[in-house]
Amino acid sequence: LFSCGTSKEGESYIVEWNESEGAVKRTYQGFRKRSLGVVQFDTTRNRFLAAGDEYLIKFWDMDNVNLLTTTDAEAGLP
Predict the structure, then answer these.
(1) What contacts 53, CB < 8 A, 6 or more positions away?
(2) Distance separating alpha carbons of residues 77 and 8, to the nearest angstrom
(3) Which of 6, 13, 23, 58 has its CA 20 to 30 Å from the CA of residue 40?
(4) Which PANTHER family is this protein grouped with (predicted)?
């Protein structure tokens, strides 16, 4: 289970939840301080996480909180 949002300090985030414990399992790194719009995200076969942010599509290996790679969305995303 994943959720995204903005902290009280204005930082965007995506977190993965441990459903059985109701606690945050991972917080993924690599977002800008203040996203320009709503961050859209999706998972692929429980292996990769993709999210749109800063006119980029950002990818993470779901076993690692650090940003894996990005691809330019050519102004197609906020």
Answers:
(1) 12, 30, 31, 32, 35, 39, 77
(2) 24
(3) 23
(4) TOPLESS-RELATED PROTEIN 1 (PTHR44083:SF45), TOPLESS-RELATED PROTEIN 1-RELATED (PTHR44083)
Read off the tokens for 70: 């990005």
Strand partners, 57: 52, 71
Q: How many residues does the chain have?
A: 78
What is residue 45's DSSP assignment?
A: T
36: left (phi over 0), alpha (psi -120 to 50) or beta: alpha
Contact 39, 60 (CB under 8 A): no
pTM to 2 decimal places: 0.73
Q: Is the dihedral of CA 12, 32, 42, 1 positive or negative?
A: negative
Instruction: Report the C-alpha gap between 54 and 45 in whole angstroms.
Output: 25
Q: Give 24-61 pLDDT, tens digit per residue.
A: 999 988 876 655 555 667 777 778 888 887 778 889 99
